[in-house]
Amino acid sequence: MTLHVLPDRTGSAAENMALDFLLLQRYPEPQALRFRHYNWHRPAFTFGYSQKIAWVSGQLPPGESFDLCRRPTGGGVVDHRQDWTYALILPRGHPWEELPAPQSYRGVHECLATALRLQAIPAGLKPPAAATPPAGGQAPGVCFQSTEIHDVIHELSGEKIAGGAQKRNKHGLLFQGSIAQAAAGPAMDWDRFHADFTAELARALSCEAEPVPWPDLAESEVEGLIEQYAAPEWTAQR
Predict the structure, then answer these.
(1) 31 — phi, psi (to 5°)?
(2) What's the CA gap between 122 and 39, in Å, rounded?
(3) 114-165: per-residue pLDDT in tens?
(4) Dihedral sign, CA of 120, 125, 130, 135?
(5) pTM of the model
């Protein structure tokens, strides 16, 4: 079993969300595990599939220009203007794909925290008793304004460093994660983190990490799904 480490890409919010979903649905080697880090063409926010657009709109910075897109996964509002974003896809039948959501969430974040500690960042996981409710009673809320069980936190300051959201379907598990660069600290070597994180994931998932080229995906399907994720009907469907 292999963890395919895909090349970094930069896209719009709709493109990034569409590609994550297609890597779950249409990957040419469906039994391979997949990991990718990606960037954003312009300032962007994403929000959870089940969140209400009226509530989300009230959490966004007024008077600023940015992309906004509903994710295929759950979770809260995420500010991508200064984050390190990634996606992990596990195929149907993988032991972690079959775990309850809190356990798979913990497993990914344990690997992430280990990679941070390799750069002397005192990272750990939020224990159940210490989690804080979302602001305003909305569940889920704004990602980095509240902490969930097994979020990655700075063990000295208590500041949230990383969170994530998941989607399971007949093809497997999509995990979309965000790391707040400011919370990780200015001395962070992100290239080293990328290598350490994927190595820790491969170890925990009992596979080998292997850099691979970008997969061949049907261009018409890619364009169609990007158009769907960019449409106002998708953003405002709830």
Answers:
(1) -90, -5
(2) 25
(3) 999 999 999 999 998 755 555 544 456 776 667 889 999 999 999 999 999 9
(4) positive
(5) 0.93
> In this predicted structure, which of 105-109, 134-138, 149-153, 230-234 has the lowest mean pLDDT?
134-138
Decide which of 3.30.70.20, 3.10.270.10, 3.30.930.10, 3.30.70.240 is the CATH code for 2-235. 3.30.930.10
Backbone phi, psi, residue 223, to 5°: -65, -40
Q: Which residue has the tokens 């995990």?
A: 175
Nearest CA among 201, 165, 162, 157 for reference residue 47 = 165
- Dihedral (C-alpha) 212, 105, 31, 48: value to the nearest 10 degrees? -80
101-117 and 190-204 helices, crossing angle to 10°: 130
* Residue type at 126 in one-letter notation: K
